[in-house]
Amino acid sequence: MLRIKRVYDPPDPSDGYRVLVDRLWPRGLAKEKAQLDDWRPDIAPTRTLRVWFAHDPQKWKEFRVRYRNELDASGRMADLANLAARARKGRVTLLFGARDRQRNNAVALKEILEERM
Fold first, then answer.
1. pTM of this prediction?
2. Which of 109, 104, 115 is nearest to 6 (CA)?
3. How many domains does the chain have?
4. DSSP-derived pairing of the beta strands 38-39 and 17-20
5. Which of 16, 25, 75, 103 gives 60 a disulfide partner, CB atoms 3.0 to 4.6 angstroms apart?
6. Counting beta carbons within 10 angstroms of the beta carbon of residue 27, is it exposed (0 to 12), middle (13 to 18) or buried (19 or more)?
7. Whether 99 contacts 10, CB under 8 Å
8. Residue 109: partners with Cβ closer than 8 Å, 6 or more residues away
9. For residue range 3-61, what is the model confidence (pLDDT) as tens digits?
C-alpha cells in the first residue's frame, strides 16, 4: 500500500516504510526528527525540471509527463521496482517537502508506482 505525506508532518507508526523522494533535504528539518527509513534523491526530478515546474498548477499535467520521461531516460524506472515490491508487502509512505499537497513529485511518483503494482 502506498501513501504520500509531507515530511514536516509528524511521523506515525502507521506510515510503515518512510522514504523521502526529494532531491534536496527539507529546510529546517533535523534528520532525527524526519525518522526516515530511506532517502531516494536519485528518483526525484532533476533540478532543471524542478525549476521549470516551480509548482505552477498550469504546468502540473506536463510536469507529470516530463518526470516520467526523466525516469525512463535515466534508467530509474527499474529502481522503482524495489519500492513497488515493498509496497505490495506493506505500507510505504512517500515523503515530500513541497507546500502543495496535490501537485508535487511524490504524487506523480505514487501514480507511476501504482501502475507498476
1. 0.92
2. 104
3. 1
4. parallel
5. 103
6. exposed
7. no
8. 21, 43, 67, 80, 94
9. 999 999 999 999 999 999 999 999 999 988 889 999 999 999 999 999 999 999 999 99
Range of the domain at 39: 2-116
Query: CA-CA distance, 60 to 51, in Å (whole number)?
Result: 13
Give start and end residues of each alpha helix (H) in the chain. Answer: 31-34, 47-53, 60-74, 80-89, 105-116
Q: How many CB atoms lie within 10 A of CB 41?
A: 11
Residue 14's φ and ψ, nearest 5 degrees, are -75, -5
Looking at residue 109, its pLDDT comes to: 95
The Cα 80–Cα 27 span in angstroms is 26
